[in-house]
Request: fold
Amino acid sequence: MGRSRGAGGAGRGSEDFESDKVAGGGLLDRRLFLGGALGGATAGGAVLSGTTAAEAEALAVPSWMKTPGSTFLGYGQPAKQEAKVVRTFAGQPNSPGTGAARTPHHLLAGTITPNGLHFERSHNGIPDIDPDAHRLLVHGMVRRPLVFTLEALARYPMESQTAFIECGGNSGLLHGEKPAQGNFQALHGLVSCAEWTGVRVKTLLAEAGVDPKASWVYAEGADAAGMSRSVPLSKMMDDAMIALYQNGERVRPSNGYPMRLLLPGFEGNMQVKWLRRLKVTDAPVMARDETSKYTLLLESGKSQQFFFPIEAKSLITHPSPGLTMRGKGLYQISGLAWSGNGLISKVEVSADGGKSWALAQLLGPILPRSLTRFRMPWSWDGGPAMLMSRATDQTGYVQPTRAKLLAERGARAQYHFNGIACWAVSDKGEVSHVYA
Amino acid sequence: MSMLKFTAAAVLVALGSTAVAQTRSAVKGPDLGQPVSAEDLAKWDIEIPPSGKGLPAGSGTVAAGEAVYAKSCQSCHGPKGAGKPNDALVGGVGNLAGKGPALKTVGSYWPYATTVFDYVRRSMPVSAPQSLSNEEVYAVTAYLLHLNGIIGADDVMDAKTLPAVKMPNRDSFMSLYKSRK
Reply:
């Protein structure tokens, strides 16, 4: 894999930051380098550039300044040098469209996932839907059933909301007895975040006229799996949206073109893609994906069902496996935190396997039910380290340790793993997945 | 959101004479949904809840299901639902408790027999979903239930008998969602 991004390298030795240390393993005050916030350290890019005057190379005038550049493209593409920044995916035997494609968060920054890299979980391929022929049916316990064309929906008042979507099965490998060896993408790549624009579900339900005795809404997709889930009516009347746009452009086919259900904070599987039907009911339908799958089997033999909101979680993206560190010195630990129950209120980081913790800096804007980026300056002494992050959300919920989660649910729950994960950094700067 | 407080009259002004001419003063949205005929609705209204409401006419036997299975399912789910290369559909009944890996199948894990009909009719076979007749779906459902020891070899599945089947794991699901209605 590539070199660590955001890595500093030389410049100042770890001893230079002695007065900025806030926890074990060389964690530094989060306000360090934030424009004069701290007296002790003189902030600035020069320190981070990692090149001292003595080592400076001669500056050449590059060839691309001496010849005209390429011309225009209809739809812009990433730099060809970034061709390795792609999703990785796998399907099932005999059914290549049943599976998942994972976001390469270890190669991205910020909080919004580019549309071509948004994770995808599909149950029988991506349907090729003619948007003019697609219909959304709203029926069941309503005064009058209604059908909506895409053209009709486009004439409704639209709203935008930024929201993460996480598959209920993301990080599921961390239930395993031994720490699975894989990079961030392989272990945790089933979460992404976008700005979604569309029509509030409650606007359509109000038009159809919901029976006061109703309590659920069954949502069904127009794919070859007819993927479907039952959603509480209360969520539909709150912030649920028929999303037509993803980061400003039409929702991508792999994410539900021409329309998907958005249920901010709820497990991804419920946010039905290629949405074709909303049926108002007074009980869940007990579809396959809310009984056979997306239920958490406990050691007692009982199972937890309808585990809807994603609980607070955080993970370190930089460094992470594959991003080898190059020599002791200053680095920026960076990662993502999110909660299906609202805002992230704080993230703490540990560099000594959880013995000591320090507050990370949260990078704004901090939005509810969205990915939140955190950052922590770190003076690595070149020795073994164990990096962890722990999120707290606005409800006061604290991300649990893996041990606590497994003590409560056993190791067979399969879904909704949000325990604290740990990366071990070796004295060679190699990063691997371990259990703390 | 003041934008939501459209009246039907305001929409007519905004959209010109082509807008649907429904004047429902109580409606707050643009009111652009179209009515649906009962016939059209029936074609789309396919899900089967535990009550069995919506189950079609017809029936299927275990013997007929064995033939459907051999032809349309076995290549992916193995002989007698044993699994490989895709999910096992048979086995593990009564063995869910414990710490080790659990064999979750239609027989051991699924709480409702109606879900088998619903899922197979809409999603299976993966290579040609919605290609089976209702009779074939009843039959292959009967076959899977029989292989799991849940119904007898001579039992027939139809709109009455299927919802009455009590699945072994029916009472093991704890809902974490409290309806706030």
Remarks:
- Chain B touches chain A through 59 residues (CB under 8 Å).
- The longest helix of chain B spans residues 134-147.
